[in-house]
Amino acid sequence: MTGADLLCDTLLANGIDVCFANPGTSEMHFVAALDRRPRMRCVLGLFEGVVTGAADGYARMRDAPAATLLHLGPGLANGLANLHNARRARTPMVNIVGEHASYHLACDAPLTTDIESLARPMSHWVRRIVSADHVGRDTADAVAAARAAPGQVATLILQADAAWNAPAAAAVVKAAPGAPGAPAKPDPDRVRAAATALRCRRRTVILVSGKAVRADALKALSRIAVASGATLLAQQSNARIERGAGRVAIDRAPYKVEQALQSFAEVEQMILIGATAPVAFFAYPGKPSAMLPPSCQVISLADATTDLGLAIDMLADELGVAADVAPVLSQAARPDRPSGRLTPKALALTLARQMPDNAIVCDESVTSGRGFYGATHGAPPHDFLQLTGGAIGIGLPLAAGAAIACPERKVIALQADGSGMYTVQALWTHARERLDIVTIVCANRRYEILRGELANVGAGAPGRNASRMLDLDDPTLDWVRMANAMGVEAARAETAEELGDLLTSAMPRRGPFVIEAVL
Amino acid sequence: MTGADLLCDTLLANGIDVCFANPGTSEMHFVAALDRRPRMRCVLGLFEGVVTGAADGYARMRDAPAATLLHLGPGLANGLANLHNARRARTPMVNIVGEHASYHLACDAPLTTDIESLARPMSHWVRRIVSADHVGRDTADAVAAARAAPGQVATLILQADAAWNAPAAAAVVKAAPGAPGAPAKPDPDRVRAAATALRCRRRTVILVSGKAVRADALKALSRIAVASGATLLAQQSNARIERGAGRVAIDRAPYKVEQALQSFAEVEQMILIGATAPVAFFAYPGKPSAMLPPSCQVISLADATTDLGLAIDMLADELGVAADVAPVLSQAARPDRPSGRLTPKALALTLARQMPDNAIVCDESVTSGRGFYGATHGAPPHDFLQLTGGAIGIGLPLAAGAAIACPERKVIALQADGSGMYTVQALWTHARERLDIVTIVCANRRYEILRGELANVGAGAPGRNASRMLDLDDPTLDWVRMANAMGVEAARAETAEELGDLLTSAMPRRGPFVIEAVL
After folding, report:
1. Domain coverage including residue A51
2. pLDDT below 50 — which residues of chain B?
3. ipTM value of the model?
């Protein structure tokens, strides 16, 4: 029994049985321990951004953490961008980062780095396991930290000698369920304040995110909105929205500053439930950072750490929403089949028409997929997973993790080409694990969002330098060959009809498939 | 004139005219400024690990820094692993990391992170530009920091408002040449101590790295070794060795602990010139971290910040090496053409036979290429660039940067498949910039080095979990399609003859080409 064995057993005893991994020499005792535990499913990513993004997708769908295995500081560094997204999504996750043996650190061997400094900005919780004797306690604490409501990124640094030495006590420690990880009880004073505000009948937005954009919470919220006349709105970006026909259709706060300012211009009060007051994604000269008018009163009913379902129920009770007030639910609706050139709109409509029941949509389509959300309120019920932290390169890994979490459901990765290239290695994991993912690459062959931003700067038409930093068309990326190179079948669509035909054949089959949608 | 304009002008005035980049919205004013300066060559990488690795390769060949342009904390995070390698290589580099406008930071917008915490572990120097008025000074300081001998990773955090505001003074600041960045003068006491040690005729190793493994320094060192009877040895990993026929053949310290311990077992004293005393790359239970016997006396003649050429000349003078002592130079030698199955040895011999004059070899072949070094002492003169920090994923980017630095020279990327996947996006930059790079992917379809390490742990034959974390053969990566997908021509070799034929056609042509060497 090594420290690494105890670490694995502690994870398993606490319900963590999937480990997304890319190991190195310093983690070899952990690999050996994993090898002795076939109950743990080890999923290899060929780059650490795949590993962390997949762990995020898994946990968003399971509402429970997976583990990751990362090799020293550089391996962690490679996974940081998607840890950043996970941190913003409040995804539960336990990262195991290998580290040199304690006595080896003073040698400053080539791979020695300051792992804590790298880990802290993208983790809610960081601890170093300095001895095999601490493995059980530290691992259980990491699991507890990951589970702290609504979820945290917990990073454990596993020194090699703590992994290979025998712990004094080999008893597995179970993370205590409940406190301190359980969601906080809603504050009755805040419930009353929110109810009072809603009764004023001023122009009110209820802005929600986190667990408040799951289907049941949204139904309760919709009843409150109907009863009070308030507008229900989701944050711009959310970890997981349950939506589609028979569920509440909820709009999201606009991404663009002008649109956000306009949409909030008349708002007199905002009630926050698991959300934060809307701010600009980026700063722009002469434009405000806060999207609400200064006069708007902001009332926080419950932050993300609170039991949001209970807070919503308490609010409905406090308001006295009558039993016969019904939520506004989306009617099932399939658009007509579009035809002709493949535009972003045609892409959205084709998908809206052909989405299967109970799909999981991982959206990193950036500009090309902006029409998708509005077009699919009446599509079959589905989960919608977004890029929560703005660090591109999560789409394909997120889809991998979601597919592993929910093997019986079809995953649709709606993927921009520029961001898709960031973690393109994920396609190999799609193939390796035979994941049921249809990836639609929106191939506009440029960083379209940045072309728009450059125009905003007033730089005029892009010259050679700007074009060569914003365009991806020289040479053109061939996504069919790219997918094939990693063992994934693929085809190209250049018209709406071709996309429709490919979806018709791809949706009923199982396993990964890539469609390059040339826009 | 914006702060971003002044930043560009300051870079140009200080001789930095290449910017490896992957920008985002917060850097759009910088992009606009670059666009107004066609003298600056902007090279897009489709992932930041490509950007930083290419800047490393460029600077290693130019002995002068390039700039990088990275998007906020996550963009920096994606580039950190190769910054780690650059830091270990003591590569001069100026990173420009975009940051939100000062007033926007308090909003905690989705992409807000602690950039300093991320930057420090992989940078020698970090500064935040908080105002347009500081751009000139801060940028010049960054260039000076990058140039501080023998080279440093300097990271500038550019707040968006510092980029878009007008600086009070628009005068370009030139980094002062010489102090404090110039190499330190050698210490005469140390020179005398080293000379005294060499005269003792104890069993002595002169361990060298950095600028001491360039051709002229090695010739002077070889004369000292001949005169004193000492053994000349290079560090295990070096930023750039000048080697081949007509140059000094220098062995490198072994990577494996057992081999290193054996090779140093009888050493009584070691003289360090730009090198550090050898330590194990990783710690192993029951094995020492230090590779030298405890009785070995270590004398540091000059560390990396010192003028190593001068230190070596002073040592030769102090020793009184006679004018007629000649260095030991490699004789030109081409091995016979190997045939049959493509083994690592056959690969090394085929390359040794067919390398063109004056090539630049970027080696990230890990296990498969270990035979290359020994087989090419008599190959035509070439530069040999190594993975200095152990963070895999540098080979293809490094080759891109080297090719941009030296467009008239053939670059050979000797690339393992596992590490090649880390930054496979670099192939697109090879195509985009029409770089003269022949990439040989050593396709053994596994993390072979880790298979060996797992065996060392005594774990026995790998089971399912270990195999699925160490093997890359399910599915097989198709490097020909991968390269084609990114616009690079490619072919596969399965025998030594096929590899030879492909090299025969690839070497004289210009532009990128990938050979998948199936081992």
Report:
1. 3-164
2. none
3. 0.97
